[in-house]
Description:
The structure is a homodimer. The first copy, chain A, is an alpha/beta fold.
Amino acid sequence: MNRQELVHLIRERKSYLCIGLDTDIHKIPKHLLSHPDPIFAFNKAIIDATKDLCVAYKINTAFYECQGIRGWESLQRTVEYIPKDIFTIADAKRGDIGNTSTYYAKTFFETYGFDSVTVAPYMGRDSVEPFLGFSEKWAIVLGLTSNAGAQDFQLQKTGDEYLYEKVLKTTAAWGTPENMMFVVGATQADSVAAIRQLVPDHFFLVPGVGAQGGSLQAITEKGMNKDVGLLVNASRAVIYAGNDENFAEDARNAALQYQQEMAGYL
Amino acid sequence: MNRQELVHLIRERKSYLCIGLDTDIHKIPKHLLSHPDPIFAFNKAIIDATKDLCVAYKINTAFYECQGIRGWESLQRTVEYIPKDIFTIADAKRGDIGNTSTYYAKTFFETYGFDSVTVAPYMGRDSVEPFLGFSEKWAIVLGLTSNAGAQDFQLQKTGDEYLYEKVLKTTAAWGTPENMMFVVGATQADSVAAIRQLVPDHFFLVPGVGAQGGSLQAITEKGMNKDVGLLVNASRAVIYAGNDENFAEDARNAALQYQQEMAGYL
C-alpha cells in the first residue's frame, strides 16, 4: 500500500487505529481451543468484528513464532485473511548485515505479503536499506520505544542529541516518507512534539496506548501532521476486551471507542 | 549447554570454530534440488562432514524464514540433527519489549531447543533480560558488528565512550559470563583488545572471518582469554567451499584448515 492510499483510508474511516494481533494461545477464550487453529479462529473473529474501524493490523510475530511451525501457519492464514485495503504490519523487529536483511525483507514483503515490517536500527545503514527497495512496501524503524528500557540506550546522549534523535535523523536520510515510518512510543508523549519537528513528514507507528498506559489525546496533539501521520496501535486493550463467547463484540466496542475518539480529532 | 561444557569441548577438539548454516536454496549444489527438503539435505551433509571439527553451528534464521513454513521445517530438522554435544546458535537478532522478548526466548530455547540466540540491544534492559532466565541457555548480545553500518550508531560517541562500549558494559551487568556472550565482528580486530579489557570473561561470537575478510589470527591474538572465550564463525567460506557432488568434502577441507590454524593457537 502506498502513502496516498493509506492517507485516503484514514480520512475515509476517520480512524488511525492499528489493532495489534498479539494473540496468545493462553489468553484467548477457552471455547476456541477445540478449533483446529485456535489462534487463527480468534484472529478471524477479531478481524471480522473490527475491520471497518481500523486502518491497520499489526501482527507481533513473537506470539506466532513461539508456537513453532503451527504458529507460522496461523500467521500466514491471518495475513491472508486481512482485507487487502487494510495496511498490514509485521512487528518483527528484524535487522542484520545487508545480505541477511535482504532475506528478512523478502520474508515479510514477498513470502507473507505484508505491507511493512518493523526494523531495529542498531546495525546501521546496510541493515536498514534492504527493506527500502520494494515498491509500496515500508520499513518501520525503531525510534523511541514505549518500554522502560528505552532509557538504557535510546535516551543516552550522543554529542548534544539523544541516540534516538540521531537514529531518526540518520535513518530518515536513507529512505523517504513514502517508504519509511518510525516507531514512537505513546508512553513518550513528552518527546513527541520534538520528534515531529525532527521528522515532520513521516508516519509514526505508536504503540503503548491502552495496556501500557499511553494517552491517545496527548500523542495525537503532539504527533499529528497534515497527512495525519499516525498509526496508533492498541493490542491487549482491544483483543482481550472480553474473554467469553462475546469476545469479538467486546473487541469491537473497544475499537469503536478508539475510533470515535480519533474521529473527534480528525 | 553450560560454560564448563563448552570450554571442555573447545579444549578437547582444539577448535573454537562455529560453522554458519546460512543455507540459500539458490546457492546449494543443483543435484540436491530433487530432494524433498534440499536445505536440510545440504545441512545434513555439511554437519556429517564437519561435526568433529567445530564446536558450534549457527543457523541464520533469515535464510530459513524467507522460505516460509517449509523453511522453518528445514530449520527444525537441522537443529534436531545437530549432535547434542555441539553448541547451537539461533542467529535471529531478536529483541522487543519484555513480554514479547519472553516469547522470542521461548521460541528459540524451548520450541526449537537452541542453546543460544543473538539479541539486538537497542530496546534496553527489559528487551534483553527475558533471554537470561533459562538454565544453560545464552543470550548473545550484539556489541560491535562486522558490517559497514557499525559506523552509523555503534561507533558514535556517547559521552567519552562509543555506543558499543556502553552497550557492552551496561548489558554485561544484566547477566553473567555464564548466560551472556557478545557479538564482536572479526572485521573490527583493531578494537578487540579494548573490548576484551571491558568484558574480560565473556565469550565472543565472532562473525566476519572468511567472506567478510576478517583475520582469524588477529582476532585470536586480541580476543582470547583464559577459557579461550571465542567462537569464531565462518559461513560461506566453509559451506560453499565447493559447489558440486563433492561439496561436503570441500566444506570439510575448509573447516579443517580453520581447525588446524586454531589448534596452533591453543
